[in-house]
Design goal:
Structural class: mainly alpha
Largest sheet: 3 strands, antiparallel
Helix content: 40-55%
Number of helices: 9
Radius of gyration: 19 Å
Order of helices and strands: HHEHEEHHHHHH
Strand content: 5-15%
Length: 228
Amino acid sequence: MTDLDAVIRRIRALLQLTEANGCTEGEAVAAAAKALELMRQHGLDEKSVHTGRAERTLPADGRDTLRGLWAAVAYVTRCRLYYDFGRSPQVVYIGRAPWPEVADWLHGVVDAVSRKAHGAFYASPAYQRHRTVRAQSLARAAFQQAFVEGLRAKIIALVDEADNDFARDRRFAERALRAVPDLRPAGKAGQVPGFAGARRAGQSAARAAHVGWGIQGAGPRLIGGGRG
C-alpha cells in the first residue's frame, strides 16, 4: 500500500465519523473539515475517495440569513453540511454521488426564489413605509424569519415519506438539520404593531415560492442521474 493509498483510507474513515455513527456534532464537523483539508493537500478529487462535494459562495462578509434553508437542502439530498469561512465564505455539501450534484441544483433554485421574494418585499409599501434604519432592520428581520420558516418546511416536504431509500438514510440526512441552530427569533418584531405586516408578507412569500425537483414526479432520480 502506497502513502497515497493510506491517505485515501484515512479520508474515507474521517467521512464515516458522523452523528449517525455515534459521533458528537462537533466531532463530525471536525472530521469533515479534516477530510477536506487532506483532499486539498494531496490533490485528491471526490471520485478518488468515493464521495461527492458541491460548494456555493456565501455573502463576502460571511453573513447569511438563509442558513436554515441550506440545512433543509442538505437534509432532503442526504448530504452533510459544512461551512468554510475562509477567504471566500462557502457552504459545502458532502455526500454520496449524485446527491451533492442535486444539492447544488436545489441550492440554486432556493437562492433564486429567495432573492426574488426579498426583492419584492423591499419594493413593497409594507417595507417602504418604514423610514428609520432600525425600523427597516426590524421589518427585514420579521420578513426573513417568517419566510425562512415557511420555505424550510416546504423544502423538507419534498421528501416522500414512503421513499425507502430516504428512510434508510434518514439518520445520516437529519444531521443537516442540526448543523446550524434554528434562526434566533427576530426579537418581538413579529408582534410589534407595524411589523406583523412584514411577517405576514414573509409567510405569503414562502407560500408563493415554488421549489421542487424540476421534473414533475421525477424526484431526484432524473436530476442526479441515479440514486446514492
